[in-house]
């Protein structure tokens, strides 16, 4: 292989990269990266379930088992443990959405930053994070059983510092 062949190979490589980058840029310009404001068709479990009645019957001990098994792999449950894949869940109930300092939240979840994690918001999140915040990085299919979500929320309410006397 002589110098001319190497020049041709180099030019072909550079032109291929430029064509791919151009196609990528055109695709991003023509196809916006946004989900529709509301689903086109109804999805079972997608509607918000009123939580007061469910919370009255919730059992925090059942919720603890689910949280430790399902959530504990990615989220720290005690204060001072730091963030792992997900932010620490200690004190999540009543905390503002996307507000743990130092944690890199997805832009999808940052759009909900004005909200507070109350029973309804947590239920909506747990029923399907991708429906609550389309584009979130949390790859969790959701929990269809509203009573089980209420148990989880009842346990999350216990994860807070004891009030000072």
């Amino acid at each position: 292989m002589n110098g001319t062949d190497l020049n041709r190979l180099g030019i072909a490589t550079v032109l291929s990269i430029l064509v791919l980058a151009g196609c990528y840029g055109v695709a991003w310009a023509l196809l916006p990266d946004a989900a529709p404001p509301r689903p086109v068709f109804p999805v079972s479990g997608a509607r918000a379930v009123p939580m007061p009645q469910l919370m009255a019957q919730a059992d925090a001990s059942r919720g603890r088992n689910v949280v430790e098994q399902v959530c504990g792999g990615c989220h720290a449950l005690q204060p001072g443990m730091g963030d792992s894949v997900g932010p620490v869940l200690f004190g999540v109930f009543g905390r503002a959405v996307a507000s743990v300092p130092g944690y890199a939240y997805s832009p999808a979840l940052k759009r909900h930053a004005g909200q507070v994690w109350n029973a309804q918001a947590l239920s909506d999140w747990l029923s399907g994070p991708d429906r609550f915040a389309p584009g979130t990085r949390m790859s969790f299919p959701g929990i269809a059983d509203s009573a089980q979500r209420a148990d989880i929320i009842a346990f999350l309410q216990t994860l807070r510092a004891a009030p000072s006397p």
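The chain has a mean pLDDT of 85. The two ends are 83 Å apart (CA to CA).
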